[in-house]
Amino acid sequence: MGQNILDADYAVRGDVIIRASQLEKSLQEGKKLKFTELVPCNIGNPQLLGQKPLTWIRQGLSLLVNPELLSIPSIISHYPSDIIERSKYLLSRLPGGVGAYSDSQGIPVVRETVSNYIGKRDQATPPNPDNIFLTAGASPSVETALSCLISSPKVGVMIPIPQYPLYSALIALKQGHPVGYYMEESPDQYWKLSIPRMQEAYDKAVREGYNVNSIVIINPGNPTGQVLSIENIKKIIEFSQKNRLVILADEVYQDNVYMANKEFRSFRKTVQELKLDSEVFSFHTLSKGFFGECGLRGGYMELLNIDSEVKAQILKLQSIQLCPSTLGQIALELALNPPVVGMPSYERFLEEKTGILESLKRKAQVMYEMLNSMDNVQCNFVEGAMYAMPSVRFSLRAIQAAKDLGMPADKFYALQVLENTGIIVVPGSGFGQQPGTYHFRITILSPESSIREILERFKAFNNSFHQQYKD
């Protein structure tokens, strides 16, 4: 087996999750543990934690998967007229229905919808649908972009630290070199991107002989939950121009912004406003935002200022995989082209969307407040996305206890949290962190009805842990 496969690591489903699976089996076998159920706070999987799917998407899918329903009056009378009309239109644009292969680049009508969505979002001319590739979630499109960028072990890709481990894992698989640039935890409790830190990381990699050709930006942030200011985005684009870097804009949480003084701004929009020719791959997915349709696997990659020869190679790579799931593609169309004012489904759609986002906003504040009330834990504002990334101060005794077991202190801590509370979090070492610091990532997705009780349980364990390992 290739060393690149052995080197690839994906902490979100790593050792802590393996142990959680063992404990789940013990619970199913009726064994007595310190908890009665597991609480999966390790991954952004909203529907697993109780979020209801959007009615508009599920009604549309039900009709598209089983068009015969459209001819049964007793059933179709339960559907609003707008979703019936949309389903009929989409079926007319789907030769062979959802069971046939689509174009490798994606169903044309869905790419048209994505184009219109981007134009409306950015208040700009929609991109050419030919520059949009539909994929099974955002992850495959990230892999495709990295496949094109990494041509040898001497190619460097800049990634934020902490980072979403998809990037370090894929860079390892492609046998590239990760160039980590540290995010800063400021005294005013924000995560920030530092241009000097970026330049420092870039210069060091170049001195070591690497051809650094691209930079990953995750905004809103995963795992840190930051939302970049427009000024910060401009400076990042200028940095990329100066150093001739392709921008990989991971924007899958663009709907998840919770702070009144922050807003999402796409890299695409800002590059065009600056009238620059920066090369940008941008990614979005049905799994995040307020949609939460993780299992349907729908997403897109949009290319801005990418050479036509490169685009041709991307199409070739996509063709090798035949096509992404047609269900994911259609669900993406329904998500990005929702009912508007005056349509029968609008009020229900708006109520569901607003309810999900307002709940996430409240839970983000609860998470921030509760984590900061725990001994030796400090949490920055959860500005957006679905996660908090608090730091933990460990005593020398705790660090030594972890070392004796051959693991970093934050992994030891996460395993202890799991064994004692059933709460699954991901150790910060799986995302990367400043040397000498320790963190963990926790989602804000637990139901409002139980999130305080879950965090109170976490707090009781945390405070007891630090008391037990007090120097």
Commentary on this structure:
The structure is a single chain. With 471 residues, the chain is an alpha/beta fold. The protein is built from 17 helices and 16 strands. It has helices spanning 3-7, 15-28, 55-65, 73-76, 81-92, 108-122, 139-149, 166-173, 195-207, 230-242, 267-273, 308-320, 326-336, 346-372, 396-404, 409-421, 448-468, and strands at 39-40, 132-135, 155-161, 177-182, 184-185, 191-192, 211-218, 246-250, 280-285, 299-304, 377-378, 387-388, 391-392, 423-424, 426-427, 440-443. α10 (230-242) links the parallel β7 (211-218) and β8. α7 crosses α8. The mean pLDDT is 91.
The number of domains: 2
Biggest pleated-sheet summary: 7 strands, mixed
Radius of gyration: 23 Å
The CA-CA distance between the termini, in Å, is: 44 Å
Features:
471 residues; alpha/beta; Aspartate Aminotransferase, domain 1; Aspartate Aminotransferase, domain 2; seven-stranded mixed beta sheet; three-stranded antiparallel beta sheet
Question: Could you write a compact summary of the structure shown?
Answer:
This protein is an alpha/beta fold and 471 residues long. The protein contains 17 helices and 16 strands.
Write the layout of secondary structure elements.
Layout: H1 3-7, H2 15-28, E1 39-40, H3 55-65, H4 73-76, H5 81-92, H6 108-122, E2 132-135, H7 139-149, E3 155-161, H8 166-173, E4 177-182, E5 184-185, E6 191-192, H9 195-207, E7 211-218, H10 230-242, E8 246-250, H11 267-273, E9 280-285, E10 299-304, H12 308-320, H13 326-336, H14 346-372, E11 377-378, E12 387-388, E13 391-392, H15 396-404, H16 409-421, E14 423-424, E15 426-427, E16 440-443, H17 448-468
Parallel strand pairs: 1-14, 3-4, 3-7, 7-8, 8-9
Antiparallel strand pairs: 2-10, 5-6, 9-10, 11-13, 12-16, 15-16
Helix pairs in contact: 2-16, 3-5, 3-13, 6-13, 7-8, 14-17, 15-16, 16-17
